[in-house]
Each structure stands twice: as structure tokens, then as C-alpha cells.
Amino acid sequence: MLRRREQLSLGQRRPLAEDQGKTHSSFGHGNASGLFSLGCARGGPGRLAQHEPRAQAALRPPVQSQPSKENPRPTESPGTPGMSSCGNGRNDGAGDASGWLLPPSPLHFPLSLLTRGYFSIFWGSLKLLSPFPGPAAGSVHCKSWRKIKNMVHWSPFVMSFKKKYPWIQLAGHAGSFKAAANGRILKKHCESEQRCLDRLMNDVLKPYVPAYHGDVVKDGERYNQMEDLLAEFDSPCVMDCKMGVRTYLEEELIKARKKPSLRKDMYQKMIEVDPEAPTEEENVLRAVTKPRYMQWRETISSTATLGFRIEGIKKEDGTVNRDFKKTRTKEQVTEAFREFTKGNRNVLNSYLNRLKGIRATLETSPFFKCHEVIGSSLLFIHDKKEQAKVWMIDFGKTTPLPEGQVLQHNVPWVEGNREDGYLWGLDNLIQILAELSQSEDLH
Hints:
The chain is an alpha+beta fold. The protein has helices spanning 2-9, 54-59, 104-107, 111-123, 139-153, 156-159, 191-200, 250-258, 264-273, 280-285, 290-299, 302-306, 330-341, 345-364, 366-369, 422-437, and strands at 36-37, 101-102, 177-179, 184-188, 212-218, 221-227, 237-243, 262-263, 288-289, 308-314, 320-321, 371-372, 377-382, 388-393, 399-400. Among the domains are: 1-46 and 83-162, no CATH class; 233-245 and 307-437, Inositol polyphosphate kinase (D-amino Acid Aminotransferase, Chain A, domain 1), CATH 3.30.470.
């Protein structure tokens, strides 16, 4: 035992094989130097501090004594890397709990690094080492391990980053988002969206839009910093519904007429959905203008028939479906919502109540009355715990009206009136969910 303690105190990787016939498991990558123990005996100096959070006590670096004439070489205090410290200062497994060895990777990092998400990366590579032999072996070790694992695993700074999913982007330009800390996301900066979010933070619609935390520069790029709407959900299901009777601005039509820009990529998208859609001239050019493509796309979807369309759905298992380009009828949309909610009446009712709240608030919103809301979406999110909410998102094309002008949002669009049909689409959406929630085959 003496020989074993001497080895461990020098930080060597494992005790001799002849030490009580026991061998010590190695850490995952073969590097056991710097390991330390959290399990200690009652009242001993190696025990974690009783008057502070255990996880923070584990994060503190080992205490070293100062060199002196009698002791020219500093020594580490009990509980330091390379040793299992018990209350009596011995390393023989005595006391009421032997130590479970944990790798230094996660627990030796400063708190500032842990709170940036590094902890979850290293925690995933955690390997449990064998406990030191002693009378406390067996079930006590399992309990000790579970306690230690839980107290670190459920710490607030760990939970902020322990995601079971990446941030899902169902619509828009790929790569527009980056994950951020503290329950936030970064979206590529858009001046128009920033102005809208600033105003919405002081509008009655504030409870129905993501919280806005200003802009930030990261890696040389500017981003709008917003609330991560998925943060409070466990393995969420997500649906993006694009609202309104059009997803392009009137200015885009005017610009296209003055200076047409042919898009070969949009022509390709068109023929992939419907090879018969392009005109003879477009087939010759093998290109279409953006407004032409957007108008065509809306005629084949429920944007034209219902005032909204489904852009995409992400299920709880992570699979994503964006094949809703031809989902046009009320019956098709109803079936999509039935599948999305798995016929869960509670989830449907939560969505319905949230939509009604949004509808009532829009009627009193100064922001809504004086803005043309184009390309905005309603984001539906629910999880297995039956949490379900809806938010208004995407305000990059939402533009203020000339002073003194207001919109009704529920009348047909004619070029020049700037109507967007948002309320017409929302009313149809509410009606569809209300009828679906009354179905007898729900659970």
C-alpha cells in the first residue's frame, strides 16, 4: 500500500499490478495523469466544501503548500490530481466512500470556459475509472457516481448547452443562424429586421415574438442576437408557416420590370416541381425572374388559396420534411397538422389558444397597423411533455408604411394597395385547427 501511495502521489498512471492483485482502469485516451477524486470521507480535509455548491468546489484548482527549508518541494493537498483522498488523509479506501476518479478535462477548465459550451463537449467523452478498493466498494460506488454525475450534469451552465438537437432552420437562406450562449441565437444582421425587433420590444406583440438583445459582431460578421425559442423544449417538433398572400414586396416587382434579372437557379427549382410550368420563352432562356418564380410558387401552394403555407416540419427524431410546395387545399393542410401533432388534442388546443391570443393582439397593435408584413412566419413548437407555443418570426421584409397609411391585412391584394393578407391567412389557420381539435379520432 505504501508503494502504491507513493506512485499515486507522483501522479503516475496506475498502481502496480501486484498491489492486492488489483489493476486500475485507464482513462479513455490512456492519459491518467492529473486525475482527481471527488469521493471523500466524512469531515476530512479532502471533502468538498459543505457551504458552497459541490460542482463549483470541484472546479477549484488543487491547493499547494509553499516550499520551505523543511519541505523544499511543494506538495498537493489531499484530494489533488493523482490521489484519492479520504477523510483520514490515507489512500487505502478507508472512510464511508471511496473516490470515483473523473478525468480532468471537464472539471479543470475555468468556469468562463464551461459557460461557453466547452463542458458539454468534454462531458461527452467522459470515461469512468475503476474505484479504489476498500470496504465501501459495490453499490455505494454506484450511488456516489450517480450523485456526482447529477450534480454536475444538471448544473445551470451545463444545461444551457446540453442540446439534444441543433438549431433548426426550416426556411430561408441556409447558414443564416449561429448558436450562442445563454439561451440565445445569432441571426445574420438585417437592418430592416433589427428596426422591427426594436419596435416590437415596445409593442403589445412583444410576448409573441422572440426577445431581442441587440446586435453583435462575431468572427467579423454582424448578427442580430435573439432568444432561442427552442431552448425550453425537450426534443421539440417544429413547423414553419409562411403567412400572407404573397412573399415578395411590391418594390421587387417594380424593380424586376425596370431591370429584369434572369435566375437560372429558380428556373431549375420550377421544373423540378412542375416541368410544364415555364413558358416557351423561359424554356429557351432556361431562366426566370425572381418575381415570376415567387408568384408561380404561391399559386401552387396554399398561399394563394388560404393565405399561408407550410414551409417545413422537423419531427422530434430530427427528420426534416420540406416537401409542401404543392400542399394547397384545406384538407391537405389539415392532414399535415394532424401528422405534425400526432393527433394530440392537448397540443392542438394549446396551439389554438395561442393563435387566438395572437389574433386578438394584432387587432390592437400599433406596429401591425402601420407595417406591411411580408415573408413573416408563425413558428409552431411542441414537445413530448405537451408544451406547445407559437411565435411570430422573420421580419426581414416587414416594412413601415408611409406616414398616415394603415392596412387592414384581410382584404385582397391589388398592386399598389400593399395589403399582405396576414389576418386572412391567420383566420383560416385558426379555423383549420379548431375543426381538427374537434375530431373524434384524437387522443
